[in-house]
Amino acid sequence: MDSKNNVMVFIQQDDGAIADVSVELLCKARELADRLGVGVEGALAGSGMEARAKELLAWGVDRINLVSHDALAHYAPLPYTKVMTDLIREREPQIVLYGATTTGRDLGPRIASALKVGLTADCTDLQIGDHELQGKLYKDILYQIRPAFGGNIIATIVSPEKKPQMATVREGVMKLTPKKPGHKGVVVETKAQIGPELLQTELLECVKEARTVNLKGAQIIVSGGIGAGSKENFDLIAKLAHALGAELGASRAAVDAGWVDKAHQVGQTGTTVRPKLYIACGISGSIQHRAGMAESSRIIAINTDPHAPIFQIAHYGIVGDLKEVIPAFIKAYKNKA
Ligand SMILES: Cc1cc2nc3c(=O)[nH]c(=O)nc-3n(C[C@H](O)[C@H](O)[C@H](O)COP(=O)(O)OP(=O)(O)OC[C@H]3O[C@@H](n4cnc5c(N)ncnc54)[C@H](O)[C@@H]3O)c2cc1C
């Protein structure tokens, strides 16, 4: 497969491990490419990444462009921008997708600027459709869909006149689809030429903060909002999470109140989650919060206000004061366990 106009995904690797968001984007790219009748390509830069590149083909990828050089082992803005821009110019994809990670948010705009094309950040959905502009019909372009104006509207953004159309997507937003083990694809490796003018920084040491909160991998999440009223009451919600062996989540209002660390925030500017069970305690269910949890398999909401928007998406609703409901919940669970 060496045709132009494919759907390309920038594959992020950190210390040789492929970022989850890149695999999620490959799944979405496959869906978009099938709709367009084109192929899926990955763009992977690194050093010693041959085996990882081959593994990616099983996600329905037609071609991985592997750009190898020791200077690409860790993300560095100048060499990455150069090799990725060169690759896009050579391959001429119609769409390029990036994870909205620290790396993707740095790299995407640099490439957009170098190629003079658009880039839509933090898309929550991507679709293909037609667009008419000043009497001209643009067929099969990328609808880049994301909340705008503080989440009050869902905007569909298009960039029909320039290719590639580019977007970033946060981790957890696109669903993983099953692997396609029989799928045939190729890895095409090139050795990058990186001159000294691009090597202006040297990575001496990489110190990683240990991840203590794992919202994305949690089967059960108990989340608390500002409705808790105080840090002491919020600790009740943490107790329920502990009793159920669940991860603790929070609304942004609870994070802003200083009751819990930002790493626990669920929603548009926090983590997107899809647990088997999500228990929302004292959370109204703003559009920004729902953007991060509405696809949970089962949702229980505890709220004093029967008209709170969270009840519109909850499978089970308890209208009541969390200070009374949660201790009763813990007691009932312990008696049953
Ligand atoms: C650009 C942008 C991005 C944002 N990103 C996020 C995000 O990622 N995540 C997020 O959560 N928010 C986000 N927000 C904020 C969002 O708009 C809301 O302000 C926030 O979600 C509200 O949090 P809350 O539900 O805890 O508070 P509120 O909306 O104030 O709701 C509190 C709820 O608690 C209930 N309550 C009160 N007392 C009790 C009690 N004793 N027992 C039970 N229930 C009680 C009330 O009835 C109410 O429904 C964002 C906003 C913007 C503009």
Q: What best-fitting shape do the alpha-carbon axes yield?
A: globular
Q: Count of helical segments?
A: 9
Mean pLDDT: 95
Radius of gyration: 22 Å
Bound molecules: flavin-adenine dinucleotide
- Tally of structural domains: 2
Beta-strand segment tally: 17
Largest sheet features = 7 strands, parallel
The secondary structure category is alpha/beta
Strands in their spatial order, largest beta sheet: 7-11-6-1-4-5-12
Short description:
28% of the residues lie in helices and 28% in strands. It is of the alpha/beta class and 337 residues long.
Write up this protein:
The strands form 4 sheets. The chain has a 7-stranded parallel sheet with strand order 7-11-6-1-4-5-12, sandwiched between helices. With 337 residues, the chain is of the alpha/beta class. Helix 2 links the parallel strand 4 and strand 5. It has 9 helices and 17 strands. The protein has 2 domains: 192 residues, HUPs (Rossmann fold, 3-Layer(aba) Sandwich), CATH 3.40.50.620; 117 residues, TPP-binding domain (Rossmann fold, 3-Layer(aba) Sandwich). 28% of the residues lie in helices and 28% in strands. Bound molecules: flavin-adenine dinucleotide.
